[in-house]
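Good morning C.,

I know you're traveling, so I'll keep this short. The sequence:
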Amino acid sequence: MKKRLIYFIVLGALTIAAIVYGVIRQGHITVSAEGGLSFGFVRKGDTQVSDSTDSFTDIDVQVSQDDIEVEEGKSFGWTYVGPKDMIPSVKADNDTFTVVSSGKNTNNALISGGRLTITIPSGSWKLGKVSLSTNNGDISIDPDQKAEMQSMGLSSANGDISISDCSGKTADICTSNGDITLDDASFDHFDLQSGNGDIALSLSDSLDNYTVIPSASAGDISVGEDTYSSGKKLSIGSGKKTIKAVTSLGDIVIDD
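The tokens, ready to paste straight into the viewer:
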């Protein structure tokens, strides 16, 4: 019995050592423009570029193959981790932060892109127009505090979109192949569309404030405590605010 226990202890220690070795060999430590650290994995040949910027209120990102993250940091800045020949063009002026794809292979769907992280400091999350678009990547906005914006337009041809703690006038979110998830959100008008994926919306205000127009060609629909059949035209509630949620293949869940 004692020998068996020793065997499993040694086996467990070797397994942990192998995992740690793999992380050291294949992992990376990302140092952001503001000096923060994040841990993850990076492909061989990837590079990291980061910089601080002037303050901004509008964000316009148009990339081809990259994930896009907007999160809270110590200062305004950005970090890109990905192929060296796909580093995007970045500028911040006239209160607008702009990113566009540059370099070769940006439109080659067979080549994986990188990850663009945009940081906004605490107390600066009152934004104007936020537009984020990627052909092949995920999009996330995750502030540590409530973010206010005039308008939010997010689109991905192939990727999930995840938003938390955001409010404003309009939220237009579209993905051809991926899930849409919004947590603690409040907008005067939501337009949520997924060709192939689930839509989940958790409101920060009362569902009674909204008129909900959901449509699912093949999937379940849940609004508040009620469920509805797919394939039917629905208009639920009579609030002044509106939620339009459409998916061809997926479920819709909306609650407060």
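Safe travels,
E.
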